[in-house]
Design goal:
alpha+beta, two-stranded antiparallel ribbon, 36% helix, binds adenosine-5'-triphosphate
């Protein structure tokens, strides 16, 4: 049972429901992991020896069992689409650029992206949910200009394709362009260090506006990282599509049977250096991969950890705290720092390396967390006392709290990493922006809607942006909806009070960097013990 300090803002009955869901999710995750064949690890020799092998899917992604890819070849027919090129792959899908057999799709696209999902039943449930949510979001309008909606991927349709071991769910969307990860690699390869300062700011603004719209629609993305952010390119064409033929010496015979004869290289590996870096005029980000999306009204406790570990917020690392939509804000702030300075704000090694610097095996989550939390504390300063108490119960080794600087070293890090084009005044604004996004307490963290109004963005706003933002802020709930919300809030408060009957009162200090507009439920928190 979680402490009442948490329940006082979410309600007793609700907390019980959440606990039950956590248990269910843990059971599903355990069962799902058992289903996946890990006989090949990512550290095994790649079956396609090539300098860019890391960017090709590993053979353990194919073969017998659950959670496997569908073998797809160039010019293959997938539903009403002909495969023309590979766009990329993730943990749960391979994505292909395809052309409608009719020339133009029912949504007016000459070229689309078909995401072919893995065959696991559990994954398929997530994929169906992803497609349905995206279709629903596509039709949704807030009636006030939909500020930010343009920066969310649009889905056209979905269908199933039969595979050796069950159906594969396919999601059709517009073909957008290379991922932000591609551009990170590009600036690195071109020796530019970081993104152009204006571009970094504009992309951050676009991501926050998309997130604000999504949160207003009642959903959290849950997995924002550079791989899931696509940069729109007019007339986008994927990479050179080179075929890499299988060299069976590293491949298990049973898997060979179900593998495609070749894998297709994708844009990430091929095209570095071919494209020009992003410019302020042409940068247009789209939030994609809604596979981890969840409803704001159902904060999650557990889910597959695919997000880069350095982008996780404290409530994700310190277990048994609700994972709310505020994890999106934290992740965007991490990406903003990397785009602006060219450096990771918090980077945690996810693999062990041997004496030659080669990756050996994956680190455990616990090991990663032991590195990650002190890094956060060093940067952001002392966490609130209730979080320190949680810290001990989450199995993390204790820190010497007396030696931690209250305000952390974020200021010094910004001074050290900031680009030459960032003025002193801008650096102050940037720090303020980051501190609001990195509030320790997820309940006091600035929302995406608060942050799009932050002064750091004022210098890049166009007349249209200002008008669209004003329309968004002018939005008021209807009288009925507002009355319903008020009633619901009172009910939640009442159930928390009932649950807290007989509990001891403990006062926790007020938060630093509290954003004024955010309703803070109470700073007098109740505990059971
Ligand atoms: N609409 C699109 N247009 C262009 N490229 C795309 C599109 N959708 C996906 N991609 C490419 O395919 C890659 C994998 O897609 P996606 O992230 O949706 O797969 P996933 O298996 O769900 O990933 P993850 O492991 O992050 O959950 C992306 O990083 C991107 O490079």
């Amino acid at each position: 049972m979680s402490t009442l300090e948490e329940e006082s803002c979410t309600g007793f009955a609700y907390a019980v429901r959440r606990q039950l869901r956590s248990l269910r999710e843990a059971a599903v995750e355990w069962r799902n992991n058992k289903e996946i064949d890990f006989s090949y690890s990512k550290c095994d020799p790649h079956p396609f020896p090539h300098p860019e092998s890391d960017r090709l899917e590993h053979c353990y992604k194919y073969g017998e069992g659950k959670g496997k890819f569908l073998p797809v070849l160039l010019n293959q027919q997938l539903g009403n689409y002909t495969v023309k090129a590979k766009l990329g792959h993730g943990n749960f899908a391979s994505v292909w650029q395809a052309e409608p057999t009719t020339g133009v799709s029912s949504h007016g696209h000459e070229s689309v992206a078909v995401k072919v999902c893995t065959n696991s039943k559990k994954d398929s449930k997530d994929d169906v949910a992803e497609a349905k949510i995206l279709l629903k979001l596509g039709k949704r309008s807030d009636g006030k200009g939909d500020f930010g909606k343009d920066h969310i991927i649009k889905v056209d349709e979905y269908f199933h394709v039969p595979g050796h071991f069950g159906d594969h769910f396919c999601i059709v969307s517009e073909a957008i362009g290379p991922s932000l990860d591609y551009y990170f690699n590009l600036v690195q390869k071109q020796g530019l260090g970081a993104f152009d300062y204006g571009v970094a700011k504009k992309v951050t603004f676009q991501l926050l506006s998309a997130t604000a719209w999504l949160h207003k629609a009642g959903y959290a993305h849950g997995d924002i990282h550079p791989h899931n952010i696509l940069m729109k390119e007019q007339g986008f064409q994927a990479g050179r599509n080179e075929k890499r033929y299988l060299e069976p010496k590293n491949t298990k015979a049973k898997d060979l049977k179900y593998m495609p004869p070749y894998l297709v290289s994708c844009i990430d590996g091929d095209d570095l250096g071919v494209r020009a870096p992003l410019t302020f005029e042409n940068c247009d980000a789209r939030l994609a991969d809604f596979g981890q999306t969840f409803k704001k009204s159902h904060p999650r406790r557990l889910y597959k950890m695919t997000t880069p570990k350095g982008n996780r917020s404290p409530e994700w690392v310190i277990k048994r705290l609700p994972i709310t939509e505020s994890i999106d804000v934290w992740a965007i702030a991490c990406i903003a720092y990397r785009m602006t300075t060219g450096k990771h704000l918090m980077f945690v090694e996810e693999r062990y390396t041997d004496a030659n610097g080669k990756y050996t095996q994956k680190r455990t989550k616990a090991d990663i967390n032991i590195d990650h939390m002190p890094m956060m504390v060093g940067l952001l300063g002392t966490p609130p006392s209730w979080l320190i108490k949680r810290w001990s119960s989450s199995g993390l080794p204790q820190l010497d709290w007396d030696s931690v600087r209250a305000e952390g070293t974020l200021h010094e890090r910004i001074q050290q990493d900031r680009p030459a084009s960032m003025s002193d005044a801008e650096a102050v604004l940037f720090e303020d922006f980051l501190r609001k996004a990195f509030a320790w307490d997820y309940r006091h963290r600035a929302t995406a809607k608060d942050l799009v109004q932050h002064e750091w963005f004022q210098s890049i706003l166009t007349k249209e942006d200002r008008a669209a933002m004003e329309a968004m802020l002018a939005h008021r709930d209807s009288k009925l909806k507002a009355a319903f919300k008020r009633g619901f809030k009172k009910l939640r408060f009442l159930s928390a009070r009932i649950g807290a009957l007989g509990a001891k009162k403990v006062e926790f200090p007020a938060e630093p960097f509290v954003v004024e507009k955010i309703p803070v439920p109470t700073i007098e928190v109740l505990r059971l013990d």
